[in-house]
Every structure is written in C-alpha cells, then in structure tokens.
Amino acid sequence: MGKRSAVLLTKRVVDAAQPNRERYHVWDSELSGFDLRVGPTGVKTFILRYRADGGGRSATQRILTIGRFGSVTVEQARKLAKAKLGGVAAGEDPAGNLRARRREMTISALIDFMRRRAASSSAAGGKVSR
Fold it and tell me: What residues pair up with 65 in beta bridges, in sequence order?
C-alpha cells in the first residue's frame, strides 16, 4: 500500500475537487485524520478519522462526519475536527457517543410507544383490541 499524498485543504482545493465514478478522499496535510470525502454525485463532506480507546493500531478506527462543504467552511470544519481530536486525546469517543445517543433516542421512542399503548389499553377498559 502506497503512502497517500496530503495537501493543505483550502477553499480553492475543495472547489477544485471534481467527482469521479467512485468516492475518493483528499487528505489534509495540516491536521492528521482530517479529510474531504468527494462522492460520485459531487457531494463534498469533511470527515475525521481517529482511533478510539487510547489510540494505537489495535484500537478501533472511527469515522466522524464533520459536515458538508457549503454548510461548513474549510476553516470551520478544521476547527471542529481539532476540538474533536482534543476530546479524543482526553479519552472521549465522539463517534461512539453519537452512536449511543442515537440508540438512546430509539429506546426513548420505544418507551413512549409502550406508554401510549398501555394508556390506550387501560382507557379501553382493559380489553385487547385485535
């Protein structure tokens, strides 16, 4: 596997990135793990790759979406990525935390559903509707 080349991600570089038949990445030379993902449809997304659980090659690699180009500037995306990497250095797992929050919302929705179901069955006089 060859060494991937990196360039300083700037607005000019991002604007010049053209879609290919397959998704590709433009790696940032200033911030390790920060890159621009360019999809076949032309969607340009800033992402951050890092290793959870203290880092090292045996640690799980995580990918965190920072934002789409247009909604987020290159400078804003780099600043957010640096902040997330600071959290990773302190032992946090931003992508893992996001995944856990999504699960919590799903469980919360299930609890709400069960509460509504229980309330409707008790309102029907305890009869089960089929």
Answer: 47
Q: What is the pLDDT of residues 57-115, one digit of tens each?
A: 767 788 889 999 999 999 999 999 998 888 887 777 667 667 766 666 677 777 888 88
Among all chains, which residue has been given the structure tokens 């991937």?
4
As to burial, measured by CB atoms within 10 angstroms (0-12 exposed, 13-18 middle, 19+ buried), residue 22 is exposed
C-alpha–C-alpha distance, residues 90 and 92, integer Å: 6
Q: Note the maximum CA span of the chain.
A: 70
Residues 71 and 93: their CA atoms lie apart, in Å, by 24
β pairing state of 24-28 and 6-7: parallel
Residues 43 and 19 in one domain: yes
One domain for residues 113 and 80 = no
